[in-house]
Amino acid sequence: MTQPQHDPTISALPLPARDDVPEGVRRLWDKSQEVFGFVPNVFVAQAYNGEQFQAWWAYFNLLVNKEGHLTNAERELLAVVVSGLNRCTYCAVSHGAALRHYSGDPVTADLVAVNWRQAQLPPREAALAAYAEQLTLRPAEVTALDLEPLRAVGLDDHQILEAIQVIGMFNMTNRVSTALAMVPNVEYHAQGRGA
């Protein structure tokens, strides 16, 4: 096993060497480099425990990156609302870039990251953001009745469950990213902002 490197600008814990991660992690790093031109810091920092990272990534990828019941923009909206509320710099910036990409609206994406109420969201998106805020900040107060505003804007049960799962995933991921003091890759800051 090679000596792990430590880069406090990426993570508070050591970073694994390429030879010390499972083959699936190395393939993900290579694919990221090919598609994005960089390897997201989260893929390196969390890979220090390679098997756990792969399990997290499989579920995260299924919820956020695959075809689902919500649109990509709606899932990224939830990610940014939750990450902004949790003050998770890594996720607010990286998923802010994804929201800009899917929505085509950099102004709204930036507003959502700070205060979604100032973004003048359409009713469906506002209901999703309000529920994300409630489940993130006041989970002990949530009841089944809190799903009614989501139904009122046309969300079906599959979409509601997916929203809950995405909100839960980002609350967990935010805490891991924050605890590791992860910083977003510089490339995220310019993504989705036009020429």
Automatic annotation (TrEMBL):
InterPro entries assigned to the protein according to its UniProt record, in alphabetical order: AhpD-like, AhpD_core, CMD-like, Uncharacterised_peroxidase-rel
A GO MF label: peroxiredoxin activity
Descriptive protein name: Alkyl hydroperoxide reductase AhpD
Domain of life of the native organism: Bacteria
SUPFAM superfamilies assigned to the protein according to its UniProt record, in alphabetical order: AhpD-like
Domain spans labelled Carboxymuconolactone decarboxylase-like: 52-133
PANTHER family: CARBOXYMUCONOLACTONE DECARBOXYLASE-LIKE DOMAIN-CONTAINING PROTEIN (PTHR35446:SF2), SI:CH211-175M2.5 (PTHR35446)
Pfam families membership: CMD
